[in-house]
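Let us work through a complete example step by step.
Step 1: write down the sequence.
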Amino acid sequence: MTDLFQNIRVVLCQTSHPGNIGSTARAMKTMGLHRLTLVRPKHFPHAEADSLAVNAVDVLQHAMVTDSLEAALADCQFVIGVSGKERSLSQQVMTVREAAAEVAVTATHSQVALVFGTEMSGLSNAEADLCHVLATIPANPEYSSLNLAQAVQVMSYEVRMALTTGQLHYAEKPSELATQDDLERMYAHMREVLEQIGYINPRAPKKLFERLRRLYGRARLEKEEVNLLRGILTLSVNPKQHRKY
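Step 2: predict the structure and record it as tokens.
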């Protein structure tokens, strides 16, 4: 899997704000991407870029800087331009999710570039012409403008989901579910308290407990959660008494 990520680079064209370069590095590293190429950045290296990169400064330290987009893409076999701009004549346009699926296939044997334009105007027509396909983020049509680093984050996330199984990077701590006996004891305790405080008539409980059983049944309570609820029930009628179940 590491080799696939190594075959993918993010290319930023003529970035004017160094903070966006740092934020891009952070966005990339969180998704497993490390190769960053900068085409004629206005300010780089820069302290603000380092500051916003946080723990992804290594991405900046290994970033390549080129004088032209042609040079940045010279050894690439598949180039995706990420753009939200509508063009009268362009290459195939797909969503970033569809583009990420193409990346997952191509990166197994080829170099892939994800190209982003300037903060103010995105990719120029000349830059877009160097891309094989264009990818767009399906945003709100009434306000589709994204910060550069945000766009990189979305594209990088889609690439990661396409290249991996999407599993969490940590194992969820298992919990012990309450047994049926635990639940029945809680229901009996609850009925006792509700009768004691006058919430229900013990002679005509109607369908209240059927509804309560359905409610807690859907919740799939853990053992500790049952203990917590029974502690509340105890203290609600005996505020000076503390019992642990």
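Step 3: interpret the result. The chain has a mean pLDDT of 91.
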